[in-house]
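[job 0412] stage=complex_fold ligand=zinc ion status=START
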Amino acid sequence: MAATGNKKVEAELIYPRRQTTITSAVELSGRGLHTGKDCHLRLKPAPADTGVLFRRIDLEGRPVISAAADNVHDCRRSLVLGREDKPLVRTVEHLLSACAGLFLDNLVVEMTGPEIPACDGSAEPLARMMAESGSRKLDAPLEVLQLKEEICFQNGDVSLTALPSEDKEVSFSYQLDYGDRPPGRERCSFNLTGDDYLEELAPARTYVLKCEIAELKKAGLARGGSRDNAVIFGPEGAEGRLRFPDEACRHKLLDLIGDLFLAGPVRAHFSAVKSGHSSNQRLARVLVGIRDSLK
Ligand SMILES: [Zn+2]
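[job 0412] stage=complex_fold status=DONE, emitting structure tokens
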């Protein structure tokens, strides 16, 4: 029995496989979506129990920060890690989603700028380079939190549920609802098996509603945003060709997987309705609390 606040949640820790890392270093450069700043990324293999560790090699003292729920600085439009009220690494969700999707547990991410490159708006370039490096098993078991009862959040029309997995699978479903405005109503689901992430989920790009762009720019965000790294939905639908008919929904699911990486590995079925980075983080924090209470 584990406790979250004053509520007890049934859960246990299991060790179903060995931890992994990439086999060799891989690199990529590009501009961040929100800051518009250039950044060179170098992903390096890391020993067991490192998790994903970001290192800003452009700053004095080369500060590091780990991908952990306690290090979330801001999660309104993207996942920003930082400490002492200062952001250190921005827009980490696609990289973390790729790690979860490819079953990569340990990695050091060296960065020469403040934000992970937006690439084409999807996780595909990041995931492809990690997949090409390949995965190497480490001599340590992976600790996975297995839920034995349901956890549910509801906030207005947003809901997020984690259900116990009876079949040893980790799966996600997402429901998007913009009413009659494109992208409209979509539903998609994905089983995390380590196999089809690269083809089925990673290529789904970030999207933005045309009517939101001015507001984002005014808030100092989306400075690196363009048609090359985001799908724009206007009143008539997507501008340009979509990679999947339900690309927007798939992207939200990709983000959910990346956001929940901060909770550590969890075996459950996750079901989300209209949830975003903030609600995803609330669930991640609860899951961390459950894990901590079992130790
Ligand atoms: Zn995203």
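Residues 93-94, 206, 251, 255 surround zinc ion (CB under 6 Å).
[job 0412] exit 0
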